[in-house]
Prior knowledge:
Blueprint: H1 19-36, E1 49-52, E2 69-72, H2 74-82, H3 84-90, E3 106-108, E4 111-115, E5 121-124
Antiparallel strand pairs: 1-2, 3-4, 4-5
Helix pairs in contact: 2-3
Amino acid sequence: MxxxxxxxxxxxxxxxxxxxxxxxxxxxxxALRKRSRGRCEGCGGSATDYSHRRTVSxxxxxxxxxxxxxxxxxxxxxxxxxxxxxxxERGWHVSRYENNPGTVPAVTIAGRFILDCEGxxxxxxxxxxxx
Length: 131
């Protein structure tokens, strides 16, 4: 029996992804990997998902910015979507009306942080994210 040939899906057309958006998204992902060191910022496991804190549909300078993202494992990412109120309390979800998601503190496994646009963060007093 001969298997059908699988054709790879085409990349989104430029109508959906402007060239500068690809560059910004790639830079944000790299900054996020550097910040998290490949570990989930929720539980400390192996990080697999780039999770937007504020919805990606808001197209501004923070759409693909490290201050608008957390590096999470699939379980923590799913938890954030399944528990939006608790995720908002932890700063894992940010209101779409917040102009700068970096001003909203995020509670991670390492503590409470204000995330910056360069991929770092400032530690704030508080406890880590123990569910």
